[in-house]
């Protein structure tokens, strides 16, 4: 199993059902040294507002979120769900857990 840290849309049970056809169970955790940045993404019916994790110059900045256990197949589904404005990277969370997180695609 892989670990996936979510700070936004993927925490929604409705979105989880849409992507995975199941509801995930997770554990609260924190991503240190990152902050959230507003992001507008063009969707089918216009622009939509989202957030994206970006590295912070302040190591004490924190993003609160949830860590989910997912399969490699599930990760591939999320890769398709996330727009090309995001990229998946591995990070170490406050708990010491190594997890995948979607950050700004630069």
UniProtKB/TrEMBL annotation:
<protein>
    <submittedName>
        <fullName>Uncharacterized conserved protein YtfP, gamma-glutamylcyclotransferase (GGCT)/AIG2-like family</fullName>
    </submittedName>
</protein>
<dbReference type="InterPro" id="IPR036568">
    <property type="entry name" value="GGCT-like_sf"/>
</dbReference>
<feature type="domain" description="Gamma-glutamylcyclotransferase AIG2-like">
    <location>
        <begin position="4"/>
        <end position="103"/>
    </location>
</feature>
<dbReference type="InterPro" id="IPR009288">
    <property type="entry name" value="AIG2-like_dom"/>
</dbReference>
<dbReference type="Pfam" id="PF06094">
    <property type="entry name" value="GGACT"/>
</dbReference>
<dbReference type="InterPro" id="IPR013024">
    <property type="entry name" value="GGCT-like"/>
</dbReference>
<dbReference type="GO" id="GO:0016740">
    <property type="term" value="F:transferase activity"/>
</dbReference>
<keyword id="KW-0808">Transferase</keyword>
């Amino acid at each position: 199993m892989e670990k996936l840290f979510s700070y936004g849309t993927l925490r929604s049970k409705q979105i989880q059902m849409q992507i995975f056809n199941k509801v995930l169970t997770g554990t609260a955790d924190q991503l240190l040294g990152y902050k959230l940045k507003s992001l507008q993404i063009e969707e089918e019916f216009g622009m939509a507002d989202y957030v994206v994790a970006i590295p912070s110059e302040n190591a004490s900045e924190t993003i609160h979120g949830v860590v989910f256990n997912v399969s490699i197949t599930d990760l591939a589904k999320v890769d398709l769900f996330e727009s090309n404005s995001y990229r998946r990277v591995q990070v170490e969370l406050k708990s010491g857990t190594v997890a995948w997180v979607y950050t700004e695609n630069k």
